[in-house]
Specification:
By secondary structure, the chain is of the alpha+beta class. The chain is built from 4 helices and 21 strands. It has 2 domains: 168 residues, no CATH class; 102 residues, no CATH class. The strands form 5 sheets. A 6-stranded antiparallel beta sheet has the order 6-5-4-9-8-13. Strands 3-2-1-7 form a 4-stranded mixed beta sheet.
């Protein structure tokens, strides 16, 4: 029996040792063996990443088993063509952590516990169920956008870290960008606040707004595999008054507010609250 178990373990390890490529999307990770003989699929939160000097290594978070190791060119990421862009996507979908040994890690936010040691301000990140150690490093090596110093990082862990892990991974932490369209008139202004999945757009029309065309376009921080469902609701009385004058369309990476039939009033502020779900 022991020999059978050993043989199975060797075959299992051999399967992943032969894995040649990894494909990552906002919703899944695929480890593809040479010649596509086998394909293993994982949830993003079931794996963590390690990188140094051009080599990427992928591990199963629960066990620490190596799933893949290879050059960055063997890793494909939706919406990214070079390693810098791929690393940026990983930082969006995972928690980015560095180490004094020169390695960079990307750790799942969901299903991972953090153990902080006051005496040396170090932190251990472990799998929530198996307690497998993923990384031990200094707390200020946990890279959180806009948050620095041990005190502030601890406050962030208490107040927001796990909340963000429970929300749609593709909407955090990046904020979309927004640009006004021709239908908003001459010299309009537009601002956006929120995340990649939930945001508020404030558009102040310029002069000579048009009867039809694009009022504003929001570019999302990720590109979804197939498409998006975008819902925008009125955020003030002006947008509510003119509900029938606008409609929303969306693509895999954008949300567009359009004018129809009747132009919006010139030099007037309109607010919309939008939610986006990708598929």
């Amino acid at each position: 029996m022991k020999n059978l178990i050993l043989l199975f373990s060797i075959c299992f390890a051999s399967t992943f040792a032969q894995a040649q490529t990894v494909a990552l999307t906002p919703t899944s990770l695929e480890v593809i063996q040479s010649s596509s003989a086998t394909r293993a699929f994982y949830d993003l939160d079931d794996v963590y990443w390690k990188y140094k000097t051009g080599t990427v290594t992928l591990y199963e978070a629960a066990t620490g088993s190596q799933l893949f190791s290879g050059d960055t060119t063997a890793v494909s990421v939706t919406g990214a063509s070079h390693w810098g862009a791929k690393a940026a996507k990983l930082t969006t979908w995972y928690q980015h952590v560095t180490h004094t040994n020169g390695y960079r890690y990307w750790i799942p936010k969901r299903g991972v516990q953090l153990v902080y040691k006051t005496s040396d301000t170090s932190v251990k990140m472990v799998h929530g169920t198996t307690k497998k150690l993923l990384i031990a490093t200094a707390l200020d090596s946990v890279k959180i956008s806009g948050v620095t110093t041990v005190t502030n990082i601890l406050a962030y862990l208490r107040g927001q870290y796990f909340l963000e892990g429970d929300r749609d991974r593709v909407g955090l932490p990046n904020t979309p960008t927004v640009a006004a369209g021709a239908a908003a008139g001459s010299s309009p202004t537009v601002t956006l606040a929120g995340t990649g999945t939930d945001f508020k757009v404030t558009l102040t029309t310029g002069t000579t707004a048009l009867n039809s065309g694009v009022l504003f376009t929001v570019t999302l921080p990720v590109t979804y595999p197939t498409g998006t469902v975008a819902t925008c609701t009125n955020g003030d009385s002006d947008s509510a008054t003119h509900t029938v004058r606008v409609f929303t369309t969306s693509t895999v990476s954008t949300v567009v507010m359009n004018a129809i039939t009747t132009a919006l009033t010139d030099a007037t502020a309109y607010i919309w609250n939008c939610h986006v779900a990708g598929y």
